Amino acid sequence: MVFKQSFSSRPSTGSIAPITALLLALLVGISFAQTTPSSKGTSKKQQPKEKGKTSNTAPSSTTAPSTTAPNTTAPNTTAPNTTPPPASAQPAPTQLTPAQSASPQATPQTPVSTGSGKPILTTTPTFQAATRLPTSATARPKSLVTFKEEDIALETTTGTLRGTYCIPANASTTASVPFIVLVNTNTVVNRDGFSHNNQDSSMHLKYLAHALAKQGIASLRYDTRGIAKSFLALKGGESSLSFEKTITDIAGWATQARKDKRFSTITILGAGLPMDYGREAALASVIAANRVNADGYVGFAPDSRRYTTMIRQKVYMTFTKPTSTYIDSLAQLVEAGKRFELDKKTSGTAYNLFRPTILSYVLELNAYEPLTEFAKLQVPGLIVHGTGDYSIPAEAVFPCADTNPLLQGVSLRNMSFTLKDNNIDSALMPLQKHKSPVLNDVVQLLTEYVFSVNMKQ
């Protein structure tokens, strides 16, 4: 795979990034992560009432983190500024020389420092067309094609997952079109990116699937366990959430698609939302891609930090002692793999982060070191972040690309976490956000990449 476009250096990290959705959740004392599933295709956020002060009750564990639980009321200081920073001037682009291998990493004529020495592309690159494909594979359409949608199901040990295939009209029964799994691990929105209880429903996954189908790319989007038509696959409610099952589900969908004779290459795309624990869709997707030998991989805004590392950084930015040190002590228990139980009435904000019903999920998630998993990937892939995504800073995303020479970082101008133009999206009222389309640069980038993916198997 060869990049033929220009790049520039990564944005400066001299200033602290705006406070993310998680940070705001910590401030107001509500859950920022998983929610109680609802059979109506959405879920209601848990909003435990804070008392402002905590008692001396410590969580039960083999190692008590503290004998005195701190006051979890946010410090009496000026609230963090969540206004997006002004766009900085982009450095002049440098022309790339053609790469000689299948790796997406391009070599500049003049090296540009990005902290690790690896360039981050700031314009949509052009890729070398795939050369290892079935003889029956169709060429990339020269004009937009029509498409159809099909219901699809995946049987699991705990129930049936439901999804939608979006199939281009030029697909046949002879490995003709590339296929991409659109992964969303959130339990607030359904397969399309819609939620009855979330005013920011964007429908971005449906819009993306349709846009890719017009370019000749088939896709799957599906309801995760406990949401919409996959509601019954989550038995036991929130306490049954499992990061391991999330990975298994992605791998299952990809394996099932591999058996469909209409599809040539299989790419897995992880696109998480700020309401997730640690933007784990991209992490779960790369782990699954490694397990099933996927042909391609794309991660939108993955977090390079372990869950507890990310929590620690945000907590110390938000709270003063002793609240910050109290939550830090709980993070240490998680890192040690120890279980504990917090009392909802006495543990304050810490309850939202480590409440009993999500502790198992957090322990499973934190067991993975993101950089280690991204380093394992054996196919060329992309790590994508948008300058309009203020929920996670670029410097927390692109180390995922730095860890593997097969991964290329791409920064898309104005792209929000819903893959849309943030300038347009932010101007819309909450209940109107579903009307804005997916950013054209996203569609162009994915189309160029997917048609460059070679068959691995």
Question: What would your notes on this structure say?
Answer:
The structure is a single chain. This protein is an alpha/beta fold. It has a domain at 120-306 and 368-450: Rossmann fold. It has 13 helices and 12 strands. The strands form 3 sheets. An 8-stranded mixed beta sheet has the order 5-6-8-7-9-10-11-12, sandwiched between helices. A two-stranded antiparallel ribbon has the order 1-2. Strand 7 (177-183), helix 2 (204-214) and strand 8 (218-222) form a beta-alpha-beta unit. Helix 3 packs across helix 4 and helix 5 (307-318) packs antiparallel against helix 6. It is globular and about 65 Å long. The relative contact order is 0.18.
